Amino acid sequence: MTILIAFEERLVRNLASNSLISNASPHQYGLTDFTRSLADPLQHSVIRYLYDVNIPVFEAMPAYIAEEGYKNPMGRSVNRTAFTKAKELEGSFFDWLRHNPGPEKDFGMCMKVNTCGCVEGKRLLMYSIMYRAIPARMTHGMRSIL
Fold it and tell me: What is the model's pLDDT at position 101?
């Protein structure tokens, strides 16, 4: 029993050190604005959008850039993007959204995060992109510049 309590205490202290919970005083913990915001449906949309759209695009980006000859694709078709490569589809991002109501709703909610001043939503979006969602092989060296 003592080992379990010690483990739980270490786990909770780790969460507090990463600002996922607050540590008001010894052995007294609470929610932060960030962890409280995780129960917000807006955040659920952001997380789903990251996994459904952003991560596949990030993973397809190196191959897409190589195919473009490492040049700016300005003036090219909107149907030839890292997104269309990632999803292996014809048409544009908005064509795809039109036929995928779940991601379309999540996209709308992400736009709301960017326009409504939802600071915690923006933090979650950036935290997920930079430190959690992108595979480690793609962020090599990025953390040192942030």
Answer: 94
Distance, C-alpha 112 to centroid of its chain: 15
CA-to-CA distance for 62 and 107, rounded, in angstroms?
23
pTM score: 0.59
Average pLDDT over residues 38-56: 85
What is the crossing angle of helices 41-49 and 119-127, to 10°?
A: 30
What is the rounded distance in angstroms from the CA atom of residue 31 to the CA atom of residue 13?
13
Strands (E), 32-94: none
Is the pLDDT assigned to residue 141 strictly greater than 50?
no
The residue whose two tokens read 């950036």 is: 126
Among 54, 51, 42, CA closest to 115: 42
Give the CA distances from residue 82 to residues 91, 93, 110, 123, 127, in Å, rounded to whole numbers and listed in that order. 12, 10, 19, 24, 22
Print burial letters for 117-144: b (CB count within 10 Å at least 16), e (below 16).
ebebbeebbeebeeeebbeeeeeeeeee
